[in-house]
Amino acid sequence: MPGGGPAARTPGASPAGRAAEVLAVHSLTKSFPGVLALDGVDFAVRAGEVHALVGENGAGKSTLIKVLTGVHQPDSGELRHHGRPVRFQTPLHAQHAGISTIYQEVNLIPLMSVARNLFLGREPRTRLGLIDFGRMHREAEAALADLGVRVDVRRPLRELGVGAQQMVALARARSVDARVVIMDEPTSSLEPREVATLFGVIRALRERGVAVVYVSHRLDELYAVCDAVTVLRDGRSVHTGQLAGLDRLRLISLMLGREMGEVRREGVTRFSGTHDAAGSEPVLTAQELTISRRLHGVSLSVRPGEVVGLGGLLGSGRSETAKAIAGALPAGGRVTVAGLPVRTGSTAAALRAGISLLPEDRKAEGILPGLSVRENIALAALPGLTRFGLVSRPRVDRVVDTFVRRLNIKASGPDQKVGELSGGNQQKVLLARWLAMHPKVLLLDEPTRGIDIGAKAEVQRLIDELAEDGLGVLLISSDVEELIEGSDRVVVLKDGAVVGELTGDDVTEDDLMRAIAEAAEDRRARDAPVSRRSPAEPEGAPPRAPAEPAPPSAEEAADHG
User: Fold this and answer.
1) CA 426 to CA 192: how far, in whole Å?
2) In this structure, are 70 and 14 located in the same domain?
3) What is the C-alpha to C-alpha distance for residues 205 and 213, in angstroms, rounded to an integer?
């Protein structure tokens, strides 16, 4: 029987039975210039049901969600809410109807505090009509504590990691009296402990009769928590039914539009194995990279034609290491490319040396959604595509056409805005931008996060091809299977420091987890004697007094005039 992970359960065992449809669409059609995004789609979710919505990037999942939540208006077809025809004019209209959404790209306000984001639009008020910050902070802390998250809720949201921001979005959706909760790749930035918490929340929602629409490319998750599944392909609904009894291989076949025999022969990933990099001198070396409270003397090397993985849990310093190497974070230490020193803290110097970084958060740090595919790809390479100070359009077009074909970017044309593409195609555009720079070293931070099985396989195959062509690759991935299968070596990080390196036959999931666990045990043993004392405090010093309350935040001061 299909299943996955420690949280596996038998799908279809929810109290939903044949409960009434809470939200449904019939013969739904939606077009954009040059693209038919939804073509007669049928979809329905019932009370107390967790319904998986799956398909490759570009299949129409995001467009369907945006129609369900009032972001887009359908061209034709019918949207029904509790059996009645409805048309949500705005997302706020949908929220008032009891529909709450958690997006893959956290859709909150980074400059506002954690608490304000959690209660935005429904802040507790005093009798004078002012925001009751004390009550709001207490309730925000309690809501997050229920999810195992303990942060200063006065802090701006942007200071939290992507995973913690996702948990804030989950807490917000949970605290609203929603009858439908739509989760778009909710685990893409979560570590295992947080995923287990999320699954617990989903089960609690199901027991309360809340309908959950669950979008994920991770099949283990689908078989762990979902009751039913709808498969979209090329804008059409090609299958709807109970997940119980649906073979995993059959599900993949439906998503890809390939015969089961073909999927069985070729698999769903495209990693070829190890690469021949033995004996060559490192193309990249990083020595003693240090950032206050974030990195502590991280050292690593990458050879031409080698894929080196960075292993560790969220918060271990993986992204900070990549950004320090790429000059995006000022850091102490030394970086060299092909034996030549690179000035740290300078992205321009890193680019000139041949270092390109594909960042983790493509929305905030990568794509420019209002610009076209052509402009996004050519952006970084423009200085090399000019003649006498003028951009050569034919040279730009050649570069863009080359990478659109090589990466199989699905767009109506090079002039289509990147913001209109699916997440997987946005990721490919961003990757094309940095490959157009002809780098010597490519730093990939979660290159397949939130993209579908087909697009993931294409990116994995491309990583192999780039390594075979002699490019040095540093790979960061929260998908342990991807990290293990795609890497020749794995450098393991914990709390901003290197705690081990796996090579050869030791590059396994068990050895990676063991290295992280042993580092945690060593840390606890080392810290135990001084756990309540600063290193600078003498033996026997009395406990420090509690910290003074933080001064009012800027938004509190502004709200109180």
Assistant:
1) 26
2) yes
3) 11
